[in-house]
Design a protein that fits this description.
This protein is an alpha/beta fold. The chain has 2 domains: about 130 residues, Rossmann fold (3-Layer(aba) Sandwich), CATH 3.40.50.2300; about 130 residues, Rossmann fold (3-Layer(aba) Sandwich), CATH 3.40.50.2300. The protein is about 45% helix and about 20% strand. It contains 10 helices and 14 strands. Strands 2-1-3-4-5-13 form a 6-stranded parallel β-sheet, with helices on both faces. A 5-stranded parallel β-sheet has the order 7-6-8-9-11. Strand 8, helix 8 and strand 9 form a beta-alpha-beta unit. It is elongated.
């Protein structure tokens, strides 16, 4: 018995020497990822990069993870509950639907670290990683005024269903336009962040508006649809169109048409890696700012080649 106790003590001492006070093997953190189902290339990029980063951290023995995609807020709420039952210590969420602040707040109140990607919601204790949506609007107003003039007629395509994303991009655009070009004529229409809606809605807009100098589109894929509508209508009055995201197909369109300045306010899905890293840093006890805003970069025909990435899924 005494010999067994000595062997056991020796084993404990070896484990302590090799692995420190954390024990013979550090337990991996449990991390959940919640993303919308893929209805858009940018969302596909978010899911791809989140999964890629989590797989790397799993291979390092740092985390184990579960990833869900959802069609609506109800489904995402159910999946969040599943992650709580699984024992998730951190959740990286991309909550595109109204009402998600309630289940997210409930998870935070249970002691779970929640890092929101992209979307700002009203929840106490939530962390967030996002591009600078408001500055995207600011920069786009500056771009349109530069390319189309201070008294241009501009169609603004907002997307009310996207919550804070559209609200902030609209705010930045409208407020900066009022400062730098108070005579800008802004006409607002609602659409969605898809090329199909961009094509369909802008075809109707072209019929309704016989003079358009520029288009403030908030999304690259919407802009691809808009450009198709312009081509099909044979319109030559439009001098500039903006976008947002980081779509490789859209980048490659930039030098193709000298008549229209095609711009994207870069908002890369790769930012989700920062959200995953933030969740792990919080679990590691590192000091983390609750909000990380990634600055805007403007891409057009003058610099698009710097942002071409053949490995990107978007």
């Amino acid at each position: 018995m005494r010999k067994f106790a000595n062997v056991l003590l020796a084993a404990v001492l070896v484990c302590t020497f090799m692995f420190g006070v954390i024990g013979c093997a550090a337990a991996a953190y449990k991390v959940g990822i919640l993303a919308p189902a893929v209805t858009h290339g940018w969302v596909a990029g978010v899911a791809y990069y989140a999964d890629q980063r989590c797989a790397e951290l799993t291979a390092e023995g740092k985390i184990e993870y579960k990833m869900y995609t959802s069609e609506n807020g109800e489904q995402m709420t159910t999946q969040l509950d599943d992650l709580v039952s699984w024992g998730a210590q951190a959740i990286v969420a991309f909550p595109q639907w109204a009402g998600m602040e309630v289940p997210i707040q409930a998870a935070i109140d249970k002691g779970i670290t929640v890092v929101n990607f992209d979307i700002a919601i009203n929840a106490d204790g939530v962390y967030r990683v996002s591009g600078d949506n408001e500055d995207m609007g600011v920069q786009s107003a500056r771009y349109i005024v530069d390319k189309a003039g201070a008294e241009a007629t501009v169609v603004m395509l907002e997307v009310p269903t996207s919550g804070s994303v559209s609200e902030l991009r609209k705010k930045g655009f409208v407020e900066n336009a009022a400062k730098i070009a108070p005579k800008l004529n802004i006409i607002t229409y609602a659409t969605k962040f898809t090329r199909e809606d961009g094509l369909k809605d802008f075809a109707d807009i072209l019929v309704a508006q016989n003079k358009i100098d520029a288009v403030y589109s908030m999304d690259d894929e919407t802009s691809i649809g808009v450009l198709q509508a312009i081509r099909e209508a044979g319109r030559t009055d439009i001098k500039a169109i903006t976008g947002g995201g980081g779509c490789q197909e859209y980048f490659r369109m930039m030098p193709e048409n000298d008549a229209i300045w095609i711009q994207s306010a870069l908002y890369s899905p790769l930012m989700v890696v920062d959200a995953v890293n933030m969740a792990v840093d919080v679990l590691d006890g590192k000091k983390v700012d609750p909000v990380k805003i990634i600055p805007t970069t403007i891409v057009d025909r003058t610099n698009y080649e710097q942002y071409l990435d053949p490995t990107s899924p978007y």
